[in-house]
Amino acid sequence: MSLKKVSENQPENFKFTEVNLAEAKDEIKKYPKGKQASAVMSLLNIAQKQNNNWIPLAAVKYIAAFLGMPYIKVYEVVTFYSMFNLSPVGKYFVQVCTTTPCMIRGAKKITSICKKLISDREKVLSKNNLCSWTEVECLGSCVSAPIMQINQDYYEDLDEKKTEDIIKNILDDKLPPAGSSRNRKNTSPENGRTTLLEVKNA
Ligand code: FES
């Protein structure tokens, strides 16, 4: 397992915005009294969204104090899960699935496009600092292979042209609509349903 890269350029302070503070308090309310530490992943997620897709160490300390947890416990969580970034990844973070079904369906071409258009190396920002990319294991949508995830959304059924279009758009600070590039609804067949025809909204 590779060690997570921790940014050298750390802001000194972090605190939730008013809106995010209210959201964090709502998350804590979902757990029984005294078990507020269970909200740690939700709060890290809020911090990551607030801070342009990465979590500075000041935010880890802030959340530890907020939840009454030792700093090291929050640090253990944030360094364990790959969904948390500890260094800047840009406003648009592209995760390309390179597990077998996506690889068979052309994931290599997608990573080549990322190398050509975004950056030669994974997790290195594009020249305009807007975007970076990385390879990931199965994103759980093999039926729409090959796919990539940009921030929270999936871009599915990709080919070279569609991938180039999407990457060029995000480099231009425009996020194209997510979903299938062949206009499939969710993961249904391209020519309409063939089963469960009697079930409404299946
Ligand atoms: S192999 Fe790519 S989503 Fe499963």
How would a textbook summarize the main sheet? Answer: 5 strands, mixed
Q: Give the helices and strands as they follow along the chain.
A: HHHHEHHEEEHE
Order the strands across the largest sheet as they lie in space: 2-1-3-4-5
Give the overall shape, derived from the CA principal axes. globular
User: If you average the pLDDT, what whole number results?
Assistant: 93
Query: What is the rounded Rg?
Result: 19 Å
Number of helices: 7
Oligomer: single chain
Low-confidence segments, given as residue ranges, are: none
| % residues in beta strands | 5-15%
Give helix % range.
25-40%
The computed structural class is alpha/beta
Q: How far do the termini sit from each other?
A: 40 Å
Report the count of strand segments.
5
Bound molecules: FE2/S2 (inorganic) cluster
List keywords for this structure.
globular; 5 strands; 7 helices; binds FE2/S2 (inorganic) cluster; 202 residues; alpha/beta; five-stranded mixed sheet; 36% helix
Description:
The protein contains seven helices and five strands, in the order H-H-H-H-E-H-H-E-E-E-H-E. The chain has helices at residues 18-29, 40-50, 57-67, 71-80, 100-104, 107-117, 160-171, and strands at 92-97, 131-136, 148-150, 153-156, 179-180. Helix 6 (107-117) runs parallel beside helix 7 (160-171). The chain is globular, with a radius of gyration of 19 Å. The termini are far apart. The structure holds FE2/S2 (inorganic) cluster. Residues 97, 99, 101-102, 138-142, 145, 147 line the site of FE2/S2 (inorganic) cluster.
Fold blueprint:
Blueprint: H1 18-29, H2 40-50, H3 57-67, H4 71-80, E1 92-97, H5 100-104, H6 107-117, E2 131-136, E3 148-150, E4 153-156, H7 160-171, E5 179-180
Parallel strand pairs: 1-2, 4-5
Antiparallel strand pairs: 1-3, 3-4
Helix pairs in contact: 1-2, 2-3, 3-4, 6-7
This protein binds FE2/S2 (inorganic) cluster (FES).
FE2/S2 (inorganic) cluster (FES) binds at residues 97, 99, 101-102, 138-142, 145, 147.
